[in-house]
Amino acid sequence: MRNRALLAMLVGALLAAAACKRSADTKPLDEAGVGYSTIQNLEKLEVTEDEVTQIVKARSAGISDYGCLELLKLARSPDAETGKTALFVLDRLADRGVIDRLIELADDPVYPLAREASLALHRAALRPAVDLDVFRTWWKRERETFGEDARTQRVREAAVGLALVAGEDLAAAQTNVLLSALAQIVLPELARLLLDERGAPLFETRQLAAWRGPLVLPFLLERLSADDAQDRALALQQLSMLLQQHPRLAAVLRPAVRAHLADPEPLVRRMACSACGLLGDAPALPLLLKSLGGGISHEAGEASQAVFDLASRTLGYAYHELAEDNEVAVQRLAAWWERLSDARKAAWRPPGAPETRRTVFVADEKLEALLTGEDARSAGAAEALLLERRPASDALWTRLLGAARPRDRAHGVVGLLGAPSAACDELAGVLKREEPGSELPRALALPALASLRGGRGPDRVVEWLEGPGAGASPAWRVLAIVSLGLAEGEPRSLAWLREALASGLAAEPVPDLLERPEVEPGNRLLRAVCLALAMRSDGVSVLAGGLTSRSAAHREWAARSLALRGHTAPVGDLLAVLDRADRYGVGDLARVLAPLIRAADAEALAAALANGSDSGRLGVAVILARRPELGIAPVVRGALIQALEDTSSYVRARAAECLGRLQARSAVPSLEALLNDFSAEPRNAAIEAIGRTGDRQAARAAAAEARRYTRLDPRWMPVLGLSDSPDDLRTLLAAAQSESWIERRGAIKGLGLSRRPEALQHLLAVFRELRSPYHTHVGEALAAGGVSAWERLAPDLKAAQVATRAAVIFWLERCPLSLAGPPLLEALRDSDPGLRQLADWILQRKTGKDAGFDTQAPPDQRDERIRRWRTLLGL
Fold first, then answer.
1. What CA–CA distance (Å, rounded) separates 349 from 309?
2. Is the pLDDT of residue 519 over 50?
3. What share of the chain is helix, strand, coil (3-state, %, to 5)?
4. 690-741, pLDDT tens digit by residue?
5. What is the pLDDT of residue 68?
6. What is the CA radius of gyration of the chain?
7. Residue 868 needs a FRET pair 20 to 30 A away by CA distance; which of 387, 395, 651, 803 works?
8. Left, alpha or beta for 350 (phi > 0: left; psi -120 to 50: alpha)?
9. How far apart are CA 30 and CA 32, in angstroms?
């Protein structure tokens, strides 16, 4: 307490002295024990005599050299953000002397932050300081009795007044008082109003950020199921910040963040992706990878950053790379995570995860005294430190449950989040206490009971919902329902949520164009049920019932949750979700649902593509473009060719994309006809699709259509190569020298399909530049050339340079076995053992067989194994 008061006086004095700079004698600093390097730094800052005096006092009080130096820098920047921060420190540490100093600063006509000082006065005294004369008169009258009790009484008056006032101006004044007070003072008084049906709308979700610390937790959990996406995003952001500050709580509450990866609104999903990365939520990594699958999504940027934060590797993924390259990288990341053992996954600690902080300079006994003391500021700081030092099983938290003051009981409940089942009866007792002022501990008891490890904690929440909570306000019931999402693996709570989902779906109102059923209380509760089920890995299968909801938000939440968790559902329900989806968001939803569709669903896909709504047909077309192997079935391929004449240009474009990925030669006439479409997107898709099919005659028409554009899309380069036109070849050779990585990639692919010798000559020149960044891509293009490319590369297999021979051997891995077999057998006789091993590895990979070749064996033994390879290859 003494250090805190001196710290406040120091900051105030330094701020007051900031205006009068005179060089000062630093000898008193040396006598006070300030280090030499610190004195040098202070001299560089031209420390004044007044500042030297204050620093000596601070050093004598035990504040470190570093602390003194940083406080001086803070106070010496009144025209910057650091000056505002100093004022914030003052109002947080406010006592009578500090308020006196703030009055002087606010009344100083030359002080540049006088207005901020007035705001700090308001936060410190909970009284408006717009008129300093009025404030000074009040302060002279109340100064001697001002303290924690006075602030608490002021908060209580504002809370009661806010519940009674009708005018907007009066309500704004009371709200400002409450938002300026500390969470430890205001939340015990305001909890009843925040969870009341009429009082909750008085405070916006963004305003909850004014109250820092774990006591705000129940109100954030309740807002996570808000109808407005902005409210959910803000609540999620504030919950993420809270959990970063308290890693022990993060271990319990991460599922509430993770569940929003399936939120129907992109804003919330993006916030959830960022939060998962910042919190080091390793179990969210597979879900984030599924968010990245299938191309660019709304949340791809945040998801890719979160994946890197969690995995500390990209394995080739980059947000701005080509979609097909990123697909391969996502598969690599998923395979890497899948190969880790369960024990390794459970112990995985991402480098960016919040670390548990341990503070050693304050004794636990003193922290306990501060936690239960009168000073709310000290209690909040002590709680933060004790949460890191004391586990949930510590007797301190259970002992606090019996305290008389609601704030102390609330601290005890927070400490028991994620505790063993032994605390069940004590927490249930807190939930039953319904006397005035006990609302905050009771609200915190709901998530605490649900998070108990083993025992009947979730049962007590269910009993409350079926008993006393049956008549509670919607906010209370929403909080209890969301809390059940923390009861992973508990059967009774899961059964209750299943029944609540079924009854909620049955009671949903019929959608009306003139009404918004999403804001009805029943739908608010249903959203909370969906959130709770999405938080639990055992609840996602139950959530499949939400696919039949009349609410588009509930349907999409259920569908996305199923896709992220990999749970299958009847294809009819999935297609019905697409059929009723918004046409602007159906593409992204179909991309997410694509992995759930099976090959056996071919007939259903074909029927939906032919007879569905505009959204349904587009959704099916996107799924087929995402997973072209589903179009192998003749019925689906016929539906795709028919879809090239669909009334929707988006459907025509996606159908053409899928047919191109299938390399469907039977669709070439229809694709060629699509080149005359009146919409640009189907024409562009047809150009790319024809290039994938490899039909040279149709490619000439597609190339003519491509030349009509001022700038060529790199995806159209293959048709230029297939056309074999001299003009198109010149275009490709020019694009192959472009500074754009993607353009050069497209040009290389086009040159690989060209039959003109100039194209092969250019590719060979680049391939022989072993350090070229395009070496791999040129190798793929040469592999498409087959025998003609090998005839030009065969002499390189006998080159003197080992690197040149290695490049050719590695290139043979891309060629068919009929072409690559003989030269690989010849490479087994190479003089370099590394190249012999490379050739043997390629043969094993291409055939799945092993001839027992030993690269270090004597020549006669190697010859025997080479003959064995010839037999296996049938040569």
1. 11
2. no
3. 70, 0, 30
4. 999 999 999 999 999 999 888 888 899 999 999 989 999 999 999 999 888 8
5. 60
6. 35
7. 803
8. beta
9. 5
The predicted pLDDT at position 171 comes to: 72
- Report how far residue 247's alpha carbon sits from residue 388's, in angstroms, rounded to the nearest whole number: 8
Q: Which of 301, 340, 347 is nearest to 320 (CA)?
A: 301
**Residue pLDDT, tens place only, 735-781:** 999 888 889 999 999 999 998 999 999 999 999 998 888 988 999 99
In 3D space, the residue among 375, 374, 381, 373 whose CA is nearest the CA of residue 245 turns out to be: 381
Closest CA relative to residue 69, chosen from 101, 93, 47? 47
> DSSP alpha helices (H): ranges in 566-674?
571-579, 586-593, 602-611, 614-626, 634-643, 649-661, 668-674
DSSP classification of residue 808: H
Q: List C-alpha distances in Å: 694 to 89, 702, 717, 784.
A: 70, 12, 12, 11
Nearest Cα neighbor of 407 from 432, 373, 368, 433 is 373
Rounded CA-CA distance 385/272 in Å is: 27
What token pair was written down for 647?
A: 């009334």
Q: Which residues contact 388 (CB under 8 A, 6 or more apart)?
A: 246, 247, 248, 356, 357, 358, 359
Amino acid found at 770: L
For every residue of 278-344, DSSP letters joined together read HTT-GGGHHHHHHHHTTS--TTHHHHHHHHHHHHS--TT--TTS-HHHHHHHHHHHHHHHHHS-HHH
Q: Tell me, what amino acid is at 51?
A: E
**Average pLDDT value for residue range 591-608:** 89
State the pLDDT at residue 518.
Answer: 43
Q: In sequence order, what E strands does 705-857 have?
A: none
Confidence of residue 202 (pLDDT cuts 50, 70, 90): confident
Closest to 500 (Cα-Cα) out of 546, 547, 445: 546
Residue 711 or 83, more confident: 711
> Greater confidence, 543 or 38?
543
Q: What is the 3-state secondary structure (H, E, C) of 129-159?
A: CCCHHHHHHHHHHHHHHCCHHHHHHHHHHHH
414 token code pair? 């927070």
The CA dihedral of 239, 241, 245, 249, to the nearest 10 degrees, is: 20
Torsion, CA 657, CA 658, CA 661, CA 663, rounded to 10: -100
Q: Which amino acid is at 537?
A: S
Q: Is the pLDDT of residue 192 over 60?
A: yes
Q: What percent of the chain has pLDDT over 90?
A: 33
Q: Residue 820 is encoded by which pair of tokens?
A: 């690559």
Grade residue 63 by pLDDT with cuts at 50, 70 and 90: low
Cα separation, 849 vs 183, whole angstroms: 69
**Distance from C-alpha of 454 to C-alpha of 456, rounded to nearest angstrom:** 7
Three-state DSSP state, 492: helix
> What are the strands, taking DSSP E only, across 755-818?
none
pLDDT at 118 over 50: yes
* C-alpha–C-alpha distance, residues 104 and 98, integer Å: 10
Rounded average pLDDT over 788-817:
90
DSSP state of 355: P
Mean local confidence (pLDDT), 654-680: 92
Element spanning 552, H or E: helix 552-565
- What gap in Å lies between CA 827 and CA 793, rounded to an integer? 14
What pLDDT score was predicted for residue 64?
A: 56
What three-state secondary structure class fits 178?
helix
Report whether pLDDT(19) > 70: no
Q: For residues 660, 663, 668 and 671, what is the CA-based torsion angle, rounded to 10 degrees?
A: -10
Q: What are phi and psi of 420, to 5 degrees?
A: -65, 170
* Helices 741-753/775-785 angle, 10° precision: 20
Q: Within a 10 A sphere around the Cβ of 300, how many other Cβ atoms?
A: 18
Structure tokens at 866: 């080479």
Among the residue ranges 90-104, 127-141, 251-265, the one predicted with the least confidence is: 90-104
Closest CA to 163 of 125, 194, 187, 209: 194
